[in-house]
Amino acid sequence: MCQFIEFEKAKGLKNNTINKRLGTLKQALTYCEKQDLIGKNPMAKFDLLSKDDVETITIEKSVINRIFNYFLTEPITPHLLRSRTITYILLDTRIRLK
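Given the sequence above, the corresponding structure tokens read:
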């Protein structure tokens, strides 16, 4: 496990991302244990890495309203349609930008 963590850190990944991958592996091994595919989950007592401090930036509702008003009042162009679609997808799915 330590080699995996070092490998992931060498790729520049943060603890939170590595923890997600470790958690997924842990769940898969727990499933295998319950299905009697393995004897014991080797990650059962494995502690996750410490969490990273993450700054969350939110956009005020008034700013979002101004953006949508802009989309509705400007003449429709391919660029506007593209921008509007991307904005709706980002807002609806709560996807993060990096």
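The first helix runs from residue 2 to 10. Try to locate this feature in the token string yourself.
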